[in-house]
Amino acid sequence: MLKQITNCRILTPAGWLEGGSILVEDNKIKEVLTSAAPVAGAEVVDAKNCIAAPGGIEMHVHGGGGRDFMEGTEEAFRVAVNAHLQNGTTAIFPTLSSSTVPMIEAACETCDKMMAEPDSPVLGLHLEGPYFNPKQAGAQIPEWIKAPVKDEYAPLLDKYKCLKRWDEAPELPGSIEFIECCKEHGVLPSIGHTRATYEDVHRANEAGMTHATHFYNAMPVVYKNREFKVAGTVESIFAEQNMTVEMIADGIHVPPIMLRMIYQIKGVEKTALVTDSLACSCTHGDAAFDPRVILEDGVCKLADRSALAGSIATMDRLIRTCVQQAGIPLEDAFRMSSETPARIMGVLDCKGTLEAGKDADIVLYTPEALELKYVMQMGREVRNEL
């Protein structure tokens, strides 16, 4: 089946295309046309002067619609994934906070099943822990946090092909062996919940740890040792030029001025946008499903208010925050939500840009307010408010 998206300003790898159209055949982009002239046999989608951009690729998200990926069930996965599809995410790497091995295995089984389905938006599983520094636990469950245990992680990496990313604190004993094992299995190791020194970061980077989890959050900045300045984990990651970062661009976890600073230093090709959303996202403020969680000032917090637990952001909010509050150019905000995560996670061959042969993952935003009006995932309309 042919569809032609017309009357839109299109973000292509070569820049903005005015007066063109996007021709979609089944689940692929057949062609990005320089003309909006009707194509014979194609169903026309009138974008009504909206901006057309690649769909968001979510590489760090814990749940949505009232469900958490830690539940491990197919129902929980589907509810959370569908909730984020409605908000501009077209491909997703579900995230587990620090979990037990049985919880990881249950989520892996579900993830494997969903990844095998035709045109699935689920691209793999992301494990955020449990190999973290307990002093930077944040909202992670502290009794499950520990140093890497090879007899635990190696069998999981051997068994489950859905594992695509695993976060760890590189100052822990056994870190280098863990990083090398991840790399051998094609899994991205990422720095997170850490108090790593520059030496720790540099050593881990040389071993293959090339990404940083929710940059600035759960990691120290420069500090004083007596009268001397010492580089924190943040400055150490800035110094490693090949390291990529992700930022929670909700305007709260990282203030807009810092979002712009990260973008200016790391650049669009090394900076990805993530929501880090909990189950209470996409629920219109209803967090009653989890008595541990409350909503306050636009973020989810633990009921004892001890720490930020995660955001309620959605992909469309990330775009608006970057452009309207952080002053980041619109095209770069879209690239950081799609092209950059696709590159980091190794799926740029099929996703992340609007060009012939890529998956038909397309979003339409109004040009002024940047309101999301339309979402297409693998050629399937999942939201249409045009």
Report on this structure.
With 386 residues, this protein is α/β, with parallel strands linked by helices. It folds into 2 domains: 2-53 and 357-384, Urease, subunit C, domain 1 (Roll), CATH 2.30.40; 56-344, Metal-dependent hydrolases (TIM Barrel, Alpha-Beta Barrel). It is built from 10 helices and 23 strands. The protein has helices spanning 74-85, 101-115, 150-159, 175-184, 198-207, 233-239, 256-266, 315-325, 330-337, 339-344, and strands at residues 2-12, 15-17, 21-25, 28-33, 43-54, 56-61, 63-64, 67-68, 89-96, 125-128, 163-168, 188-191, 211-212, 223-225, 228-230, 244-248, 271-274, 293-296, 299-302, 308-311, 362-365, 372-377, 380-384. The strands form 5 sheets. Strands 1, 2, 3, 4, 5, 21, 22 and 23 form an 8-stranded mixed beta sheet that branches. It has an 8-stranded parallel beta sheet with strand order 6-9-10-11-12-13-16-17. Strands 18-19-20 form a 3-stranded antiparallel beta sheet, with no helix packed on it. Helix 2 links the parallel strand 9 and strand 10 (125-128). Helix 3 (150-159) packs parallel to helix 4 (175-184), helix 5 (198-207) crosses helix 6 and helix 8 (315-325) packs antiparallel against helix 9 (330-337).
